[in-house]
Amino acid sequence: MPSSKQVGQESAANKKIGGVPTIHYFDFQSRGRGQVVRLLWEDAGIAYTDVRYSFDEYPQYKKSKIEDMNPTATIPV
Fold first, then answer.
1. Are residues 26 and 58 in contact, defined by beta-carbon separation less than 8 angstroms?
2. Are 22 and 75 a contacting pair, CB within 8 Å?
3. What are phi and psi of 23, to 5 degrees?
4. GST N-terminal domain: which residues (predicted)?
5. pLDDT truncated to tens, each residue of the chain (77 aa)?
6. Which residues of 57-74 are buried (b: 16+ CB within 10 A; e: fewer)?
7. In the beta sheet, which residues pair with residue 48?
8. Does residue 35 contact residue 27 with C-beta atoms inside 8 Å?
9. Which one of 25, 52, 53, 74 has the fewest beta carbons within 10 angstroms of its own beta carbon?
10. Where are the domains of the chain?
């Protein structure tokens, strides 16, 4: 099961963008392309849900969950 955590508290900024966004990310245990999005949301005071997939979990979810969100089946989504 991918790890998921809620970052921040829902604020007026979340209401402006229509709710709490979710980022799905392949966890390399380091910073990558998804880090820029996380920092942007944190600076703007936007709460978000961070879902990370490990090396073992990614192939299982790639065809089912991730391909539903992004036709190219790549992340971050």
1. yes
2. no
3. -110, 125
4. 21-77
5. 788 899 999 999 999 999 999 988 877 666 677 788 889 999 999 999 998 888 888 788 877 778 888 888 777 77
6. eeeebeeeebeeeeeeee
7. 7
8. no
9. 74
10. 3-69
Distance of alpha carbon 51 from alpha carbon 49, whole angstroms: 6
- Cβ count near 17 (within 10 Å): 11
pTM: 0.73
Q: Six-digit token pair at 33?
A: 């392309």
In this structure, the dihedral spanned by the alpha carbons of residues 8, 9, 13 and 14, taken in order and rounded to 10 degrees, is: 100
CA nearest neighbour of 76 among 29, 30, 35: 35
